Records
---
Amino acid sequence: LKTLASGVLKGDRVSISKAISSIEDRDENSRDLMSELYPRTGRALIVGITGPPGTGKSSLVNELAKVYRSKGKTVAILAVDPSSPISGGAILGDRVRMLDHSLDSGVYIRSMASRGDEGGLSRAARNAIRVLDAAGYDIVIVETVGIGQAEVEIVSVADLVIVVLMPELGDEVQAVKAGLMEIADIFAVNKSDLPGADKVIYNLHSILNSHDSSSQVALKVSAKTGMGIEELANKIDEFQKGEKTELRGKRKMKNLADELVRNVALNLFENAEARLKNDPQFKEIVAKVGERKLDPESATDLLVERLVDYSK
Ligand SMILES: Nc1nc2c(ncn2[C@@H]2O[C@H](COP(=O)(O)OP(=O)(O)OP(=O)(O)O)[C@@H](O)[C@H]2O)c(=O)[nH]1
Ligand SMILES: [Mg+2]
């Protein structure tokens, strides 16, 4: 294990891949690995990119990576797909587009997909980001597909969140409803080479103006023509250097608190599940509920009492 952690810290790609797999599997090494790596994190800029399917997130990530590489910065890209099981089509598509960087040792690309458990995925993604941070990448970009709560959860660990929209989507309002409004620092209206981008910007501004959103910006970009990409990278830089550090500090602490609460809930759930399955009284209680001698809520209270000693 010591060698795996030190391999990661040296930036060895094989070690990084093994470490992320260990975290995905939550195997017996993953816990010690995280405790060795965590003190060495906190250096990378974590950029979250999310938005509805097909808006051009991967294409933008690809272009952003080019900008950073031209400035000599190293980039790790984590593509997280909460909606599809392992190796869905979208991820395959991402892989193909990312071939632009396949021969560049300054770019590391990894995808993670749901194994049917969203909470588990965002937990694994958070720790995978930490591995990449500890490995020394200057920028860690996390791409998630979609506009749901799972994406919000995954991407909210980022220092900066970019929500990617496009013309003729009509989904701005939906994205806002799904909670992206609060977490977006930059709205990138991609495919602005197509007609209709101004309308999206107009709609966004009217939504932004009705909120306390002084720090949020909306930009027109095109991953296809390269329009606005430099400006997007500059906005990211500004954000990193900007005086919003206090706000970001607060956000980080809130995210950490949320993460710990979720982890505790997940661990308790798994522990309860395992213990109940091996508890002969559990079967009896289920039977009683089946016979209507006990109602489900009272049965639940009874079981919780058996499992948890609140006095501790
Ligand atoms: N016209 C135009 N097409 C673009 C632009 N950016 C991406 N596309 C195209 O849009 C399609 C989707 O691009 P992706 O980068 O895969 O989008 P995505 O948001 O990562 O997609 P998912 O990960 O599946 O949600 C592809 O066919 C791209 O070639 C752009 O700026 N202009
Ligand atoms: Mg994509």
---
Amino acid sequence: MSEKLKPININGLELQHPVMNGAGPIKLLKHVRQIAESKAAAVVVGSITVEERSGNAGTTYYVEADKRFSLNSKGLPNYGIKFYQKNLSEMVKIAHDHGKPLIMSIAGFSPEEYAQLAKMVSEYKVDGLELNLGCPNVLEKDGKQKEITSFNQDLTGETLWKTQQVVGSEIWTTVKLSPFSNPLGLMAIAAIIGESKMVNAVTTTNTFPNAYAFNDVGSIAVDPNNGLGSLGGKAMKPIGLGQVKQLREVLPANIRLIGVGGISNRKDVDDYLSAGADAVQITTEFINFGPAIFDAILRE
Ligand SMILES: Cc1cc2nc3c(=O)[nH]c(=O)nc-3n(C[C@H](O)[C@H](O)[C@H](O)COP(=O)(O)O)c2cc1C
């Protein structure tokens, strides 16, 4: 039997314990209620964009039969800024009524859009911002993949700077990254994040871009982008742990880490905490099992 997971304070963000949901599936009031009523320690909503998006067409999600991995090419479906202006106060209230902070994940298509989204969100007294700099599944009108912000150092620096200019350094902020296979790229982004005055934490990692799989009947598992989708689920765990381990070594100590990737049980949580994470998020296994995943982990 593992020791009980303890309350933590991540640079001002108070959590009853270190386990929360990861960004992706939580977009509507009913989803917020579901997480608020679960054993998760916080409610992570989004990612949201300025404009409403229906996401990519065709089959955009696949989970391998033994749940060893997920492949997704959702392309950030969400209801856009206007919807959240109408619903965010209620979402925050639901989370707070259950004693949980609400973290809003935002995804801009330019530094200005991140700033615009951050400003809107901060007006609704959310408890934290997660800047999703790592979405791999956004396709341009001509079908080409959009650049992943966290792989571009200038764009990342400009995004942090422009966002900070608009919302200051008061709002609790975490920056969500794509997984780096180039250790020098990871170090360069860590240096840029370390210089920013607005960043309290780094969330690592988003899905691994451009994975490819066949489904159980031998067809490509997801339709958009010629079948290239992004990898989540259990297969991501050693990659996520590696990102946490490396980032912990190079980031300033005051920037805390939220680990995500392949968490399905209490040992996975403990492994992330041992590698240097302060808290963790769960996405694929939440999609697989619903809020019961939090009960199971908290019980273990
Ligand atoms: C269907 C799906 C949708 C996702 N959408 C988002 C998103 O909107 N924003 C984001 O930052 N990450 C998104 N992610 C990435 C996850 O939050 C997480 O970083 C990644 O899947 C690794 O964690 P996991 O192994 O627990 O799934 C999504 C993942 C999945 C599977």
